[in-house]
Amino acid sequence: MKYVTEFRDPKAAKSLLAAIAQTADKIGVTRAKPLHIMEICGGHTHAIFRYGLDKLVHEGVEFIHGPGCPVCVLPMSRIDECVEIARQPGVIFTTFGDAMRVPGHKQSLLQAKAAGADIRMVYSPLDALELARRNPDREVVFFGLGFETTTPSTALSIQAAAREGLTNFSIFCNHITVPEPIKALLDDPDMVLDGFIGPGHVSMVIGTHPYDFIARDYHKPIVVAGFEPLDLLQSVLMVLTQIAERRAEVENQYARVVPEHGNPVSLAAIDDVYEKRPSFEWRGLGEIDASGLRIRPKYAAFDSEEKFCIGYAAGPRHFEEPEGCACGAVMTGRIKPTACPQFGRGCTPEMPLGALMVSSEGACAAYWQYGGARAAAE
Fold first, then answer.
1. Does 295 reside within a domain?
2. Residue 150 and residue 242 in one domain
């Protein structure tokens, strides 16, 4: 990647760390009186631990890991419904790789594949669309999941299938949106949050204005950030500066990628194909109004829920978390992954109990990969 080294420059990092420390001291931040900054995106969580930023910043700055991992927030019932669809005769079920090992109530998709279901990993819904073209006698289903980052690609694949008149292609839609769960967290009286680092890739699609309510209604600063170490350090400094100046605004540190009003082509495709669900269940957060997307009636022929009468089309199902699993508490920032009684014991990357240990953006996976395995052993 060109120009990446500029965003990893040690000299610039030291300068930013010094400015963070100076600003934190100015507003009276200490280890005993910390400042809680939530990084919404799981990609930011991994970057923070990959580069050791949690150890480098001022001791009074505490990162709170938000619900920004789309694989992690899916309830177990939706994984069960994936398995149920995949086991239907004649179905080729396709999915992103990080969803393969997420545990359902009884099986993961990987276990269902081992038991004989035709489940294939793809890199894009367009790969699934090509499978449908090549296998006209098979029903090809794509597991559509993710925040606004991945929603445009599934919308475009549905539009393409409609233009071509493909009748053997559908999407099991589990697309969700970022602003609504953040509002739910801010409305929680037990949550202590002083500011936010906003998701870069989501904002690339939707822009920065969907976060206006955070500053306007809750008086919390939010800075949309990139994913390199200097991006994150500068974003932390921008949050602290707002607090020091008694401001609460939406700022865009990632302006080299994120346009103020988002991507109009992507937004148009999303608006054409999807509409808001009345509510959607989030792992650890429960039902959140208008936080999920569903396929509009005009594209119902490409909606797996309608085609197989499953999911919300058949009535939602709910399963409790496995005993001792604290995914919900970790994902909402109430505890750190190492505080989960199953971390490194009943839940490891080889034998995951919860989704946060599986996903490439899961907080537990980040802790394990960047030192959590040692902490669990200790």
1. yes
2. no
Same domain as 243, residue 224: yes
- C-alpha pair distances (Å), 270 with each of 125, 206, 265, 292: 14, 10, 9, 12
pLDDT of residue 317: 58
Task: Indicate the DSSP class of residue 167.
Answer: S
Question: In terms of domains, do 159 and 92 share one?
Answer: yes
pTM of the model: 0.90
Q: Token pair for residue 310?
A: 């499953």
Domain with 18, as residue range(s), is: 5-67+189-252
Instruction: Provide, rounded to the nearest whole percent, the portion of the chain with pLDDT above 90.
Output: 71
Contact 128, 342 (CB under 8 A): no
pLDDT value of residue 109 = 95
Enter the tokens of residue 170. Answer: 């559908």
The predicted-structure confidence for 71-126, as pLDDT tens digits, reads as follows 888 888 899 999 999 999 999 999 998 899 888 888 999 999 999 999 999 999 99
Same domain, 142 and 92: yes
3 state SS of 61: strand
pLDDT given for residue 246 in this prediction: 97
My answer on whether 170 and 309 are in the same domain is yes
The 8-class DSSP code of residue 208 comes to: S
Query: 114 and 132 share a domain?
Result: yes
Q: Are 43 and 144 in a shared domain?
A: no
What is the helix (H) or strand (E) element at residue 274, kind and residue range? strand 274-276
Residue indicated by tokens 């509009």: 296
Indicate the number of domains in the chain.
3
Asked whether the beta carbons of 180 and 210 are under 8 A apart, the reply is: no
* Helical segments of the chain, H only: 10-26, 42-50, 53-56, 76-86, 109-114, 125-134, 151-164, 179-186, 200-206, 212-218, 229-244, 264-273, 304-308, 327-331, 363-367, 373-377
d(CA 173, CA 315): 15
Q: What is the reported pLDDT for 378?
A: 55
Q: Is residue 287 in some structural domain?
A: yes
325: CB partners within 8 A, 6+ apart: 340, 342, 347, 353, 354
Kindly give the parts of the chain with pLDDT less than 50. Answer: none
**Do residues 37 and 130 both lie within one domain?**
no
